[in-house]
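Exercise 3.2. Students should predict the tertiary structure of the chain below and write it as structure tokens, then compare their answer with the key that follows.

Predict this chain's 3D structure.
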Amino acid sequence: MYQGKRIMRGYFEGWYYKFADIYEQNIGALIPGVSFDKKGNNSHSFIQYLDDSGSLSNYFLYDIKEFSYSPDKPEIKIGKSFFSPTRIEVDIDDKSSSIKGALSFRDIKPWPVSFFSPGAMGWYAFVPFMECYHGVLSFNHLIEVQLKLNGKSIDFNGGKGYIEKDWGRSFPSYHIWIQSNHFDEPGISLMVSIAKIPWLGKSFNGFLIGLLYNGHLYKFTTSFSLFRAFSGVCLSMEKLLTCRPVARCSGLYAAVAPCSEGVYPKSLQAQFGSCKMITNIVQ
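Answer key:
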């Protein structure tokens, strides 16, 4: 559900919908959201579209008045487009690009929610002064129907998707993020997020890692006992994924290095797509 109010200042909220066709030839993302500046002068809503080829990448700007949300359902609307965890309907047509169609999602697998751990943030979700909050609405799901991009129909039936969201005062000053649900073995999904987290006048390096494997979610998350042991994430990741990292696991960034040479492979899923899973996940 939308976390903000109708009128805000110094606030953003965005949803990230990734989708790939069954052959992994068409991979893209739609990012609807709102942005309220601190003074209230340049507030707006938006829909961003990205694809892995770079041939279509646009930031569609809307007046904030064109954004609406349901008070009791996880549904939003921007312009003529509709977004929910189970379905999106896109109707964008401006001078630069046209995106039309609908995608339905089934077998959604969200991050588990409990009373003391309401989602991916864990108990940090209860802290009122966090700069940014994060949620995983679906690690992996099947896609139905199709989209039409600049007049070209793309069939996403049988493809895979992923949904997450962020909201708060500001995005982190640095943020490293990886996500994939395309592995040789079906049903696996991996999400990695590492960021600088402001905390009571100081900051720490926070991390959030979720691995959906054999129907079970393995969690690697920040706790006070781990502030001085961030390298433990690197060690866990090396045990988890038998791929050769670009750098040895001695710092913050090695844990998220791609398995092959280069920083960003052509395919969005290629960063961990060739890794072989092993069974001794946590020692």
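Discussion points: The first helix runs from residue 231 to 240. The chain is about 5% helix and 45% strand.
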